[in-house]
Amino acid sequence: MKPLVILNPNSSQTVTDGIAASIAPFERFGVPLRCLTLAEGPPGIESQKQADLTIAPMLRLAADQTDAGGYVIACFGDPGLHALRDQTRLPVVGIQEAAVMTALTLGQRFGVIAILAASIPRHLRAFGAMGVRDRLAGDRALGLPVAALADAERSLAAMIATGKRLRDEDGANVLIMGCAGMAHFRDRLEDAIGLPVVEPCQAAVGQALSLMATGLSHRTERNNDA
Amino acid sequence: MKPLVILNPNSSQTVTDGIAASIAPFERFGVPLRCLTLAEGPPGIESQKQADLTIAPMLRLAADQTDAGGYVIACFGDPGLHALRDQTRLPVVGIQEAAVMTALTLGQRFGVIAILAASIPRHLRAFGAMGVRDRLAGDRALGLPVAALADAERSLAAMIATGKRLRDEDGANVLIMGCAGMAHFRDRLEDAIGLPVVEPCQAAVGQALSLMATGLSHRTERNNDA
Amino acid sequence: MKPLVILNPNSSQTVTDGIAASIAPFERFGVPLRCLTLAEGPPGIESQKQADLTIAPMLRLAADQTDAGGYVIACFGDPGLHALRDQTRLPVVGIQEAAVMTALTLGQRFGVIAILAASIPRHLRAFGAMGVRDRLAGDRALGLPVAALADAERSLAAMIATGKRLRDEDGANVLIMGCAGMAHFRDRLEDAIGLPVVEPCQAAVGQALSLMATGLSHRTERNNDA
Amino acid sequence: MKPLVILNPNSSQTVTDGIAASIAPFERFGVPLRCLTLAEGPPGIESQKQADLTIAPMLRLAADQTDAGGYVIACFGDPGLHALRDQTRLPVVGIQEAAVMTALTLGQRFGVIAILAASIPRHLRAFGAMGVRDRLAGDRALGLPVAALADAERSLAAMIATGKRLRDEDGANVLIMGCAGMAHFRDRLEDAIGLPVVEPCQAAVGQALSLMATGLSHRTERNNDA
Amino acid sequence: MKPLVILNPNSSQTVTDGIAASIAPFERFGVPLRCLTLAEGPPGIESQKQADLTIAPMLRLAADQTDAGGYVIACFGDPGLHALRDQTRLPVVGIQEAAVMTALTLGQRFGVIAILAASIPRHLRAFGAMGVRDRLAGDRALGLPVAALADAERSLAAMIATGKRLRDEDGANVLIMGCAGMAHFRDRLEDAIGLPVVEPCQAAVGQALSLMATGLSHRTERNNDA
Amino acid sequence: MKPLVILNPNSSQTVTDGIAASIAPFERFGVPLRCLTLAEGPPGIESQKQADLTIAPMLRLAADQTDAGGYVIACFGDPGLHALRDQTRLPVVGIQEAAVMTALTLGQRFGVIAILAASIPRHLRAFGAMGVRDRLAGDRALGLPVAALADAERSLAAMIATGKRLRDEDGANVLIMGCAGMAHFRDRLEDAIGLPVVEPCQAAVGQALSLMATGLSHRTERNNDA
């Protein structure tokens, strides 16, 4: 059985471990899940420039997985999503895109909990490219300094506060965690806010396994010239 | 293991059998798949009136499945989707909504192969409610009389012709089959047209199993008053 | 002269009486106005499920009016609007759709005073299907428990407060009452808020009478197969 | 009973007579209908410049009608619509806006039969300002030289051909006549094309009478400073 | 070298002087800049009616500039923009349109500082016609009485406060000054708010000079019948 | 006087020479124009993958221009646009974005002449991110094999044919050349098609010089943390 390869484009093994824990519920589906850390990536991706610079090494890392059955790009921002689709005919799922598509089926207006304010314009460009801006309730940042993100309880408290603003001020009825590998917070966020919370890596792995099971891809074997 | 219940709101066992065949690739995921035919439904759903009139008996049929772990409504048009979400906290997936969300990740502009022209305004209202009209390349009907749909080869030929128009005139780069239970045509459609083709029941079951695996739903146990 | 039939899909005669009072100004136009209560409906419609379940008996009630010249569906949410249009070639107007179309000509951004928060996603789906989301300033609920709605003064005060938030926080310059049969509040709302307030039954009856006068319908006698 | 004043901003009495005939079915509603020709207007309005230059004299003509109960601006393009709303608190309806709002309730995608190709960008700007571009199927011109418009049969034949293209190529299921005063063609257009056809002056007068009956306006007596 | 003609459609020479100062940085490009005041205009334009009534005299003033190489209409609201484009084949730039197009390249969501609340619906119609409503963060007025606008420091303070609300409450990351001739405030606004601030006359003159340099216009010599 | 640096991210000096010729009309504005070829780029950019892989070397090349006063990224697709904006506070203009914003002021619906069909989904994502999809008439490819693009007359003929389809079938009233450095075709395209044709490098340089003249940028000196 060919594995699903999950690519973390930052260099933090802690984040990769969090991603692996997030997607553990899918192990029962019988497809090996291989989570990889991009050694050449930055410790965290905080700008479009950093995101774009991960693409070249990530494409090489992806190409090295010669037994892959599909890919997930596990960074909210989906760096290199379409570049990797140019490189392979296997299913390629971005966690941002998958999270949005999942959220659209769980509530009428989605809210995004962004880690950093600087990411929001990037998100909005992506939502515009997806054509789903009408469904966006709001995209709000935690308002914490980067250093504070290492403090789990402080981060969770900020996520809860941000989620409540998205619910109460912006009218969101479903939330997306704008980050990878924090599924361990999902239950507590749902408990505190009372809305469904989409963890993007879960959304992406679920979709990738579905595509692999049905042989569906952006580019089939038969489609040579599109 | 609680089963995923797939509800065919028309009364045609042939269609239900086709749905069961469509989703067979998901059996390996380990969740029982229970396909049910709505005895009170019409042989085929051809209008908004017929669709709406299936809702009451379908809600009863769904409620009777007391061991369900989730539901799929297997009619392109998603009759009763939000009504069933009002009735249960379990995941409820509509095949139309799931097909669209899947298609949005496989191509920039999606085309829909509608069985009947009369369904197109209904589809457009749904795509508007989903907020994805900007991504729609076109929605075209087969142009066959209803009686001719029983002729498989003629139907397939019409689907191929319709798909090619969506590709060449409307600029679609991914297609959705606007019907349930015809996954056996998917490969030949992809071969003939050279674009990925989304079969809605497959898209919906993949998503439902993903939601069930991660305990995600439109309405969680903790969300009593939303 | 064939009557315009106004169908209240809930079972509350009080609401029907309110509707009749709302539309009394149209009596001078010379067309009989027949307001009917749906005995099989719930006392009030609070969910998509309840709305959908009124469709079957409402279609029967409509069909029983063999002398009808046109129909208005008098529930904000327009349950069965397209189903009834499938059933008859006479003009069929939904109060939600008519209210929105009227509001769009009275101000650049419309606000909706919803009775219940649970209705808002339903409204948003409808506005999306109408393709008018760009014109929506906001949709806000009264924030009252259902029991409190029987208290007219308390309801009016909540409507005024809600309307002022729509005006001041959301930038609405025209308001829609998201309910049927409360036209007696309209003047006081306009006085208090200083914006035009659309009462949906009035908007719908005005449009239905216009369609009847000019022989215009979604489906004309000559249009047999569309 | 205060009259509804219908302002034809071109100087053609023939057009005004056509408008009067179009709206004759509303006489039974009991409100006097006063159709006026703008002597200072051009024989026909063919550009934005011509449209804009009618505004000053039209505002004066409107102001002269001191007994008016409401206004309709009877040129497809709605010149001076918002200027007249600045000048008076009475209901002011534009035939383009009213036709679009009516069409949106009669079909999912509307097509516009434009008299001249040069008008189409003007229409598109208006539909954009109305926020209804997603509902537009197409806007197509007759393709006749201006001189040929005097030939009724040739004009009708071009309208029918244009309407069929809007139906068959663009997917329109409701049509709007992009001109004033040609209601006498409406029946034959509907017969030939099989779609509902909205005559804009009828749509506008119906809406204006409804507003007048219920005392609704863009600007109420109480709204002094908005 | 043919001059670029900048038309101020109000009658205030002070405003024209402010415009001239705003665009002085473009003098180095070598094209004469001719700023004209419309004697027939109102002292300031506060309504759609006032805006529309400037069109006729402005078109005459424009036509009198027989040596013009291009035009800028220097009123936020772009009165007569398309009328002047009907009158001439030279480049015609509106400051509102140019400011929006410039802002769209400087930030993901633009905010507009309106002088008067009554202008906001007019702005929204224009942004709708431009098709850019999805990019609008907000449009907020200063909240000052007209008389107070003569007080420069009070106006600047209100602009700063308004800009901060657009940034903090509405999520704007670029601002547009919704007025002409106040470029002298631009630096202090940028300093106080920390966002790029587009002065519309600068945006328009820059674009007009670019069009003139490359011989580009809405209507070329060769395009006789479009 | 600091130069404007125009970065051609492909390695073709012929293309760079074409760009330099395109923008020669701006030399009279007095700012040095420095056109650079990216040695590390591919001979031509034909996919998202190729586009993304130019970003890293292009950012280095940009950083090496320590005397720069602003930048233009001269590839239709704007690779690295936001990454370079992360790297510098100077004005950064992408030719695709500038061409679209210019076209929006010259016609109501813009058409794009794409060199390769494979680029169209990339364009559509960009137009979605820009929020201007409602204004797009169509995006059509030349339909030539890559080898044929070296044949200037054949390319021009294909551009003219493509432009006419955009005009006649899609309703475009302004066109954009979806490539860099072909300004020498612009006059003949305009002559043949009768619509204004935007050459993207001209649009971008005009805008960049305007921003430089007025000290306007996405990120000002004062904006340290946005």
Brief characterization of the structure:
Chain A is of the alpha/beta class.
Structural overview:
6 copies of one chain form a homohexamer. Chain A starts with a strand and ends in a 12-residue tail after the last helix. By secondary structure, the first copy, chain A, is α/β, with parallel strands linked by helices. Chain A has a 4-stranded parallel beta sheet, with helices on both faces. The first copy, chain A, has a 4-stranded parallel beta sheet with strand order 6-5-7-8, sandwiched between helices. The first copy, chain A, has 2 domains: 4-94 and 202-214, Rossmann fold (3-Layer(aba) Sandwich); 97-200, Rossmann fold (3-Layer(aba) Sandwich). The longest helix of chain A has 17 residues, at 152-168. The first copy, chain A, contains 9 helices and 8 strands. Chains in contact: A-B, A-C, A-E, A-F, B-C, B-D, B-F, C-D, C-E, D-E, D-F, E-F. At the C-D interface, helix 5, strand 8 and helix 9 of C face helix 5, strand 8 and helix 9 of D.
